[in-house]
Design brief:
Blueprint lengths: L8 H15 L9 H8 L3 E5 L2 H5 L3 E3 L5 E5 H6 L1 H17 L12 H10 L2 H19 L2 H14 L1 H4 L9 H13 L3 H10 L2 H4 L5
Helix pairs in contact: 1-7, 5-7, 8-10, 10-11
Length: 205
């Protein structure tokens, strides 16, 4: 039996806020997720060869919640994706720690088999909560608003040249905003939508 707690996006936001207050109270960006995991929490990060190619996994948290395994290629070549995977697995550590007590897997193969044994609804909810945690951890709301404000102000003269503001203007803005948080732009785009940033920072042509 795998009992996933019901946690809304706002619930997880509150958990992230409390977590950062404890482990990174300055909220300085980019959030040092690797440092928090290794130095603050004492967890190991293990670059696993061919984890994605052989098992279809970006990463996973060990059953004894002592180690985060991450695809070695991602670890060495794709920093933004690596940081997101760490934050995602950290989410499972913070949100689902008690769920790991009686799980059967030890190896990546066993982890994959375990996942396949779950109801689709359960695994979807499990991973969605990990994604929500990762996005809010790496792109905290207050810092997101500050950076978006700065980027919008930076391009205000350019925006004035448009007769009508393009529908995808926030996608373009996300590209620059993402560099401040050391994440990929889609992570920022999701956070902008979730926090309704366009309504808070109106852009006028």
């Amino acid at each position: 039996m795998f009992n996933i707690p019901y946690l809304s996006y706002a619930d997880i936001g509150s958990r992230v806020q409390a977590f950062l207050n404890q482990h990174h109270p300055s909220f300085e960006i980019p959030i040092p997720v690797e440092e928090i995991i290794e130095l603050n929490l004492g967890l190991d990060i293990f670059p696993f060869p061919r984890l994605y190619k052989d098992h279809g996994l970006n990463g996973f948290l060990s059953r004894d919640i002592s180690t985060i395994y991450v695809d070695e290629t991602q670890y060495s070549q794709f920093n933004e994706k690596y940081r997101y995977t760490l934050a995602h697995e950290l989410g499972h550590y913070v949100l689902h720690k008690t769920c790991y007590d009686d799980l059967p897997f030890r190896t990546p193969d066993e982890y994959v088999k375990w996942r396949l044994s779950l109801l689709q609804e359960d695994i979807s909810w499990f991973e969605t909560q990990g994604e929500w945690f990762a996005g809010q951890l790496l792109v905290p709301t207050v810092q997101l608003e500050k950076v978006c404000n700065a980027v919008v102000a930076k391009y205000q003269e350019t925006f004035k040249k448009f007769a009508k503001m393009p529908d995808d203007v926030w996608s373009y803005i996300s590209n620059e905003v993402a560099t401040h948080f050391d994440v990929n732009p889609p992570v920022v785009e999701i956070r902008i939508k979730k926090e309704n940033i366009p309504a808070k920072i109106p852009i006028q042509a």
